[in-house]
């Protein structure tokens, strides 16, 4: 399959984690992990409230998201939905996304962890892995992130990794106005704050698919 769609051979590894596009068994495990629960029932940390549904619907939406992102991926606009494994166990997902990356050299990210895997530093390590892929692998110049009021875990990860405040934005979520706090990280700041060892395998054949095969001088 990697000969036809090289992204299935991409591996991003840290001392504890592996990030990759999941095979069918891993995707099923990710769907089941989401169905068990990602956050407290009275909170909603996502702009798209996919967890506000019965467990079977949540699980199916995770599967559909992964298939849809693969099917819609083109160099001008892509979302890379990487599943995160720790010791071979699926623990969550880390997305990396970009629009017109060849021009903007800018990425965004999103993630979630199963509740049983939270509070162990995994969120920081997997974002660090995604940032290494973006800056060292693809040649990004800027990374952005956003988290809602009350999402201390996501905000804490951004702070640890050196992101700076970049204003706020309002979103309508389940009929309520939510305030998102935006963060931005430059390549120079990332280089000063990087502290996680990351290796990448299988990247070169993926570069044209991500608009990163002709990096700027």
TrEMBL record:
Q: Where is the N-acetyltransferase domain?
A: 16-163
Write down the superkingdom of origin. Bacteria
Q: Transmembrane ranges?
A: none
Q: What is the protein name given in its UniProt record? A: GNAT family protein
Organism, scientific name? Prauserella halophila
């Amino acid at each position: 399959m990697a000969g036809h769609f090289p992204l299935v051979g991409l591996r991003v590894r840290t001392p504890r984690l592996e990030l990759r596009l999941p095979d069918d068994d891993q995707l099923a495990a990710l769907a089941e992990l989401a169905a068990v629960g990602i956050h407290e029932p009275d909170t909603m940390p996502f702009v798209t409230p996919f967890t506000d549904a019965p467990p079977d619907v949540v699980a199916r939406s995770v599967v559909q998201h992964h298939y849809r992102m693969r099917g819609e991926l083109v160099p001008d606009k892509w979302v890379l939905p990487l599943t995160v494994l720790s010791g071979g166990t699926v623990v969550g997902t880390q997305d990396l996304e970009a629009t017109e990356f060849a021009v903007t050299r800018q990425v965004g990210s999103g993630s979630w962890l199963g509740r049983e895997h939270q509070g162990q530093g995994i969120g920081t390590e997997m974002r660090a892995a995604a940032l290494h892929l973006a800056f060292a692998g693809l040649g990004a110049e800027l990374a952005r992130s956003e988290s809602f009021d009350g999402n201390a875990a996501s905000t804490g990860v951004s702070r640890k990794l050196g992101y700076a405040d970049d204003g706020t934005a309002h979103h309508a979520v389940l009929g309520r106005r939510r305030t998102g706090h935006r963060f931005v990280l430059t390549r120079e700041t990332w280089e000063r704050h990087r502290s996680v060892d990351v290796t990448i395998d299988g990247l070169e054949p993926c570069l044209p698919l991500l608009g990163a095969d002709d990096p700027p001088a």
